[in-house]
Design a protein that fits this description.
seven-stranded parallel β-sheet, alpha/beta, single chain, elongated
């Protein structure tokens, strides 16, 4: 499972505690020993437990993990127990809690999509690069914890022809697709289609994967029928408005990849934190 680097975690901690905890210092309780526990308040796919534990360690505490990223937890299930001086526990408390809650929300929403797709026959749930700026690493970890895959990590790892690229091209698209394949022979060429006619033409021009943008399930089924006679029909993926309620309909229509950014905006999970002196 992906691990967030110490650099990322220290940046999160420094944003919240740039010059120490004024309240803890002023009360004179920094060195008092304590314990902090995290537990699930509701069902969730938990995420970033490892990072929460590492935050405790970076602050000077010790931690025992009771769950790992990707685990399905029932209400009341223990996530971690941390021991250390009050200044360490209070410094990481909100940073670690917020990180686990936000990523567990994404992971749980991703799992719901995966379950809906699986129930209809199976399709990959691929989450886009449209994460909140600066949150790519934890968002990606959450998607993986929920059973999804990344659609694209960025512009440098995949070939996807958008209509916005095509406005700059001159001549037959088939020639440009062939050139793209020659430039990156180990990559699949994906192209976004906006209509049935566009999808059929792109398939005939040799794309490996068709991304159907904002197609209804019925429209996807129509594309599937039109491409059925091709010797090597492209893989169909659908994007735009995909969620757990309509995932099954798209899978039944012929989509084999569900492209979505919806899990990134899921409601955070609810993690109960308790802190007490020892």
């Amino acid at each position: 499972m992906l691990r967030l680097s110490d650099d990322i975690l220290l940046r999160l901690l420094t944003e919240d505690v740039p010059h120490g905890d004024m309240t803890t210092h002023g009360l004179g309780i920094a060195a008092q020993p304590g314990c902090m526990t995290f537990a699930a308040r509701a069902q969730m796919v938990v995420c970033c437990v490892e990072e929460a534990a590492r935050l405790v360690e970076l602050a000077g505490g010790a931690v025992e993990m009771h769950a790992r990223s990707g685990d399905w937890l029932e209400p009341g299930a223990a996530i971690l127990t941390a021991q250390g001086p009050a200044e360490a526990l209070l410094a990481v408390w909100k940073v670690a809690q917020t990180l686990v809650e936000a990523t567990a929300g994404i992971a749980t929403a991703t799992r719901r999509l995966v379950e809906a797709a699986t129930a209809a026959g199976g399709a990959a749930v691929a989450c886009t690069r449209k994460t909140f700026p600066g949150a790519k690493a934890p968002s990606l970890k959450a998607v993986l914890a929920g059973g999804g895959v990344p659609h694209r990590l960025g512009l440098s790892d995949s070939l996807l022809i958008f209509p916005e690229h095509r406005v700059f091209l001159v001549g037959a698209l088939a020639g440009h697709i062939a050139r793209l394949k020659a430039s990156s022979p180990e990559k699949k060429v994906v192209a976004e289609a906006a209509s049935l006619e566009d999808a059929v033409q792109l398939a005939q021009d040799g794309v490996d994967i068709l991304q159907l943008e904002k197609f209804s399930p019925d429209a996807v089924a129509e594309v599937t029928r039109h491409l059925a006679d091709l010797v090597h029909p492209p893989l169909l993926e659908v994007a735009g408005g995909i969620n757990a309620d309509n995932a099954a309909a798209y899978v039944r229509a012929g989509a084999r990849v569900l492209v979505t950014s919806s899990p990134y905006w899921a409601k955070p999970a609810d993690v109960q934190v308790r802190i007490y002196s020892t």
